[in-house]
Specification:
Elements: E1 2-7, E2 10-12, E3 18-26, E4 28-39, E5 46-51, E6 57-59, E7 67-72, E8 77-82, E9 91-103, E10 106-113, E11 117-121
Parallel strand pairs: 2-11
Antiparallel strand pairs: 1-3, 3-8, 4-5, 4-9, 5-6, 7-8, 9-10, 9-11
């Protein structure tokens, strides 16, 4: 009932920047938390950053001061601005969105994941 489409990944040199986007669509009634997670080869998926409906943010220690999460509620979209990228930031980045959607006269909770976008930081 809710689909997420990510964009913005790619190859960048160390010290460079990228901006990821994740747009949610469907019969969305409300969106609560939105976030970004990443998974490097051979490692578990882990938190990068989250943002609540009120705009409160939380970041992994490894990205504090370099990454910024933001959201556009009118567009049901979450962004991740990544600056001063390092080779250790190389991973598949996934967005996650939690909220409620409307279906068959009921409001139902959803917790959806994007398809993932590859970010590679290399010279």
């Amino acid at each position: 009932q809710v689909q997420l489409v990510e964009s913005g990944g790619g190859l960048v040199q160390p010290g460079g920047s990228l901006r990821l986007s994740c747009a949610a669509s469907g019969s969305i009634a409300s969106i609560n938390a939105m976030g970004w997670y990443r998974q490097a080869p051979g490692k578990q998926r882990g938190l990068v950053a989250t943002i609540t409906s009120g705009g409160s943010t939380n970041y992994a220690d490894s990205v504090k001061g370099r990454f910024t999460i933001s959201r556009d509620n009118a567009k049901n979209t979450v962004y991740l601005q990544m600056n001063i990228l390092k080779p250790e930031d190389t991973a598949v980045y996934y967005c996650n969105v939690e909220g409620t959607y409307y279906s068959n006269d009921y409001y139902r909770n959803f917790d959806s994941w994007g398809q993932g976008t590859q970010v590679t930081v290399s010279s």
